[in-house]
């Protein structure tokens, strides 16, 4: 065998060795795999218009949806509060998925515990698991708050979280006055943004219920589920600080998912102080940075008398303009000259590179707010967002996207696809080609299969490192997006220039 102590190969090299090629060939024969020509024939047919019509006609099957499940969003939301431990009422395997998904993206530990429900709990209910689990979590991990969410198992059998938590407190699992907010987050409906919304509402209701509101001049900001939250939240705070705004970020994960390596393990780091959450009921208004992440939360906040405002992932010139002008109107604070200069720099960057951005066509997928904002921004650069897909997007979202397309000449041939998955996107890319695909790491298979260059700009990003440390929001974030798009375009130009001697003249130093 080629592997030895003196010669250790990674799997990419190992599987090219003769022994492994022979093994894989024998495996194919044993499994009666079709011949390579037949596989290619069928693969080519699945890129045809005929197959696209069959693909878009399917109703009972989802293939590679561009979304995750509710509890993931709940765990993410809870991570943004001071000393908070997520307690997921369900099986250990489900919680392992949420933790690994976040850890692989942020390259940071993602702490969460499970009530470890198994067959007996599925039959008799998970009350004992809740009582014992809360006691263990409280004594072992010393949290300041435990945020409870659910998996499919707990929801199917109908476990009552409020009753279970009350019973656990009566039995002494945690002190009677200890904060244990909860949210029912069935994974078989909605998506991670639904779970984020449910948990945010649950946490606010835990602190605000039966409280009397005394309005002040501060505002609350809810960032929403965001894989770039480390960079975006810090950019958001920088802009607000420049304006002199008094604010509270409700669920700030920027430190929790960006802890330093200095010899100290931080199970909890940063996050919104619990005292600040309680005080946030008195804010003048609450601003959501992602409308589709927070409908239930904003409804609850409106019902207690606060003004609410919702944006769609403020990115680019217009997106940032709208956000800053609304903050100025809410607070009476002027937009400082420094931010005005940053706006001019973003416009200058777009202008400098207009020759390479104008007329480019894009396919964009991800969460509804992200897709909306990215489509809006590429139209600002003269691009055309031809295929816009959100698996967790609704018919109402499609209409909103169409209104956006109709507002610009660059949106004439563009369409939004709500409720569709990445196998639908494959058909779109194969039959109506575009210059670039914008999405997450799962898009690399579409890039390979349809020869569509991919730029990773949304959660999750597993196969590249540290993207989340840099903002996409604001004018500074807009420049970051422009650079990412241009780098990919230039790489593709260089790749084509070096493909043969006939195109070598285009391998240019200066562009």
From TrEMBL:
The keyword Metal-binding applies. PROSITE patterns: NITROGENASE_1_1, NITROGENASE_1_2. Residues 69-482 form the Nitrogenase/oxidoreductase component domain. Its EC number is 1.18.6.1. InterPro entries: ChlB/BchB/BchZ, Nase/OxRdtase_comp1, Nase_comp1_CS, Nase_Mo-Fe_CF_bsu, Nase_Mo-Fe_CF_bsu_N. It catalyses: N2 + 8 reduced [2Fe-2S]-[ferredoxin] + 16 ATP + 16 H2O = H2 + 8 oxidized [2Fe-2S]-[ferredoxin] + 2 NH4(+) + 16 ADP + 16 phosphate + 6 H(+). Residues 1-55 form the Nitrogenase molybdenum-iron protein beta chain N-terminal domain. It is an enzyme of class 1 (oxidoreductase). Keywords: ATP-binding, Iron, Iron-sulfur, Metal-binding, Nitrogen fixation, Nucleotide-binding, Oxidoreductase. Binds 1 [8Fe-7S] cluster per heterodimer. Pfam families: DUF3364, Oxidored_nitro. Its cofactor is [8Fe-7S] cluster. SUPFAM superfamilies: Helical backbone' metal receptor (SSF53807). One of its GO terms (molecular function) is metal ion binding. The keyword Oxidoreductase applies. Transmembrane segments: none annotated. One of its GO terms (cellular component) is molybdenum-iron nitrogenase complex. This molybdenum-iron protein is part of the nitrogenase complex that catalyzes the key enzymatic reactions in nitrogen fixation. Belongs to the NifD/NifK/NifE/NifN family. Tetramer of two alpha and two beta chains. Forms complex with the iron protein (nitrogenase component 2). This is Nitrogenase molybdenum-iron protein beta chain. It comes from Zymomonas mobilis subsp. mobilis (strain ATCC 10988 / DSM 424 / LMG 404 / NCIMB 8938 / NRRL B-806 / ZM1). The lineage of its organism: Bacteria, Pseudomonadati, Pseudomonadota, Alphaproteobacteria, Sphingomonadales.
């Amino acid at each position: 065998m080629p592997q030895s102590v003196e010669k250790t190969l990674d799997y990419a090299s190992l599987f090219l060795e003769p022994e492994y090629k022979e093994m894989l060939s024998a495996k194919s024969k044993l499994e009666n795999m079709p011949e390579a020509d037949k596989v290619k024939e069928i693969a080519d047919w699945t890129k045809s218009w005929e197959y696209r019509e069959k693909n878009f006609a399917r109703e009972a099957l989802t293939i590679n949806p561009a979304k995750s499940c509710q509890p993931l969003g709940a765990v993410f939301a809870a991570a943004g509060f001071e000393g908070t431990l997520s307690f997921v009422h369900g099986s250990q395997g489900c919680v392992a998925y949420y933790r690994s998904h976040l850890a692989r993206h942020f390259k940071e530990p993602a702490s969460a515990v499970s009530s470890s429900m198994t067959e007996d709990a599925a039959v008799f209910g998970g009350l004992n698991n809740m009582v014992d689990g809360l006691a263990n979590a409280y004594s072992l991990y010393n949290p300041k708050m435990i945020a409870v969410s659910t998996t499919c198992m707990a929801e199917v059998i109908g476990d009552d979280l409020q009753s279970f938590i009350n019973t656990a407190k009566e039995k002494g699992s945690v002190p009677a006055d200890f904060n244990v907010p909860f949210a029912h987050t069935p994974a078989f409906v909605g998506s991670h943004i639904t779970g984020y919304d449910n948990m945010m509402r649950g946490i606010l209701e835990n602190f605000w219920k039966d409280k009397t509101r005394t309005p002040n001049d501060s505002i609350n900001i809810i960032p929403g589920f965001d894989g770039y939250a480390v960079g975006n939240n810090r950019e958001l705070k920088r802009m607000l600080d420049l304006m002199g705004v008094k604010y509270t970020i409700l669920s700030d994960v920027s430190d929790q998912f960006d802890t330093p390596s200095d010899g100290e393990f931080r199970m909890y780091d940063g996050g919104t102080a619990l005292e600040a959450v309680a005080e946030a009921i008195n804010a003048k208004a609450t601003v959501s940075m992602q409308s589709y992440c927070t409908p239930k939360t904003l409804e609850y906040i409106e019902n207690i008398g606060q003004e609410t405002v919702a944006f769609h992932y403020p990115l680019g010139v217009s997106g940032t303009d709208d956000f800053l002008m609304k903050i100025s109107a809410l607070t009476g604070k002027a937009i400082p000259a420094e931010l005005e200069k940053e706006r001019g720099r973003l416009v200058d960057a777009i202008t400098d590179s207009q020759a390479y951005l104008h007329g480019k066509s894009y396919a964009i997928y991800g969460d509804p707010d992200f897709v909306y904002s990215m489509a809006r921004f590429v139209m600002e650069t003269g691009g055309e967002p031809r295929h816009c897909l959100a698996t967790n997007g609704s018919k109402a979202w499609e209409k909103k996207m169409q209104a956006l397309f109709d507002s610009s000449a660059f949106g004439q041939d563009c369409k939004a696809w709500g409720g569709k998955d990445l196998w639908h996107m494959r058909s779109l890319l194969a039959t109506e080609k575009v210059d670039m695909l914008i999405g997450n790491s799962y898009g690399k298979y579409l890039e390979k299969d349809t020869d569509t260059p991919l730029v990773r700009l949304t959660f999750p990003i597993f196969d590249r490192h540290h993207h989340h440390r840099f903002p996409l929001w604001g004018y500074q974030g807009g420049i970051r997006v422009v650079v990412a798009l241009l780098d990919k375009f230039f790489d593709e130009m260089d790749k084509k220039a070096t493909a043969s001697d006939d195109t070598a003249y285009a391998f240019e130093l200066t562009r």
